[in-house]
Amino acid sequence: MLSAQERAHIAQVWDLIAGHEALFGAELLRRLFTVYPSTKVYFRHLGDQPDEVQLLNHGQRMLQAVGVAVQYVDNLRAVLSPLADLHAQVLRVDPTNFPLVIQCFQVVLASHLQDEFTVEMQASWDKFLTGMAVVLTEKYR
Amino acid sequence: MRNKRPRSEAAARTCFWPIRLTSKLPDTMVHFTTEEKAAVASLWAKVNVEVVGSESLARLLIVYPWTQRLFDSFGNLYSESAIMGNPKVKAHGRKVLNSFGNATKHMDDLKGTFTDLSELHCDKLHVDPENFRLLGNMILIVLATHFSKEFTPQIQAAWQKLTNAVANALAHKYH
């Protein structure tokens, strides 16, 4: 589904994130909770006002999962299966929230990469992250 | 282990195709705080309308290619570089962003401000209001590329609220 060019864009951007998953993840969550406060209902275990450490920890977990998806982009269903189970059976995050995370992810990438976040990068990452969201919600029923 | 709880109705929308970026808000007046208005105004003062407008529209047409259906008369949209360089795309992008500029001056009455444009987009242009939400999201991403760290979460929140409210105002007169 992803062209060679799209995979290259994804790998290129991931190179910048790799090793800094916690920082990027924390920023993603900070933006998500600020711009879309209703998403906090899914993160009650982080408390009412999650502190920096919690954002870094949880952000790291989320971005590490993205890293796995980047590595196994041809086999998302298999590799994300445990996470898909988790979302379907335990977390039950309403599917309409995934585009909100994706939007914030794009803003994080855009603000860090600036000019380098070309439209081709944006298109590739939008497609890739949407693909991840589809897999994570596929077992909902 | 099967989950026995009642499924959310929205879980029914787990189809492949684009999930709505924001849910449709009920028909209530949007209220912007003083801080939100300040956040919007401070950034707007530095926005290059020509550049941000044209880039936002170009990104919409490229990232979500089905939106090109609305622009048959725009000529060459066959490649990314064609779209980015298309003069009609640039002109229309600038026009749309100027309209946003108007929105920043009437944040207390967006529905009134966009009444005519709403009727136009429904009756003459036949644009799915989802496109307004998508374009609003593109504007935010372009602003982030331009303003980087200055595009703080709080500023992002104020602008996201504005673009959502403008999208709703533009959809308000649809029938």
UniProtKB/TrEMBL annotation, chain A:
- Source domain of life is Eukaryota
Q: Identify its protein family.
A: Belongs to the globin family.
Would you tell me the protein name for this molecule?
A: Hemoglobin subunit mu
Single GO molecular-function term?
Answer: peroxidase activity
| CC annotations in GO | blood microparticle; haptoglobin-hemoglobin complex; hemoglobin complex
Give yes or no: UniProt keyword Transcription: no
Annotated Globin domain ranges read 1-141
Q: Could you tell me the Gene Ontology terms of the biological process aspect for this record? A: hydrogen peroxide catabolic process
Give the source species.
Muntiacus muntjak (Barking deer)
Q: Which InterPro entries does the record cross-reference, listed alphabetically? A: Globin, Globin-like_sf, Globin/Proto, Hemoglobin_a-typ, Hemoglobin_oxygen_transport
Q: Which UniProt keywords apply?
A: Heme, Iron, Metal-binding, Oxygen transport, Transport
What's one Pfam family here?
Globin
| Family annotation (Gene3D superfamilies) | Globins (1.10.490.10)
UniProtKB/TrEMBL annotation, chain B:
Q: Which GO terms describe its cellular component?
A: blood microparticle; haptoglobin-hemoglobin complex; hemoglobin complex
Concerning CDD domains, the annotation shows:
Hb-beta-like
Per the database record, which ranges form the Globin domain? 31-175
InterPro entries attached here?
Globin, Globin-like_sf, Globin/Proto, Hemoglobin_b, Hemoglobin_oxygen_transport
Q: Which GO terms describe its biological process?
A: hydrogen peroxide catabolic process
Q: Which UniProt keywords apply?
A: Heme, Iron, Metal-binding, Oxygen transport, Transport
Q: Name one Pfam family in it.
A: Globin
Q: Which GO terms describe its molecular function?
A: haptoglobin binding; heme binding; hemoglobin alpha binding; metal ion binding; organic acid binding; oxygen binding; oxygen carrier activity; peroxidase activity
What family does the entry list? Belongs to the globin family.
Q: What is the protein's given name?
A: Globin domain-containing protein
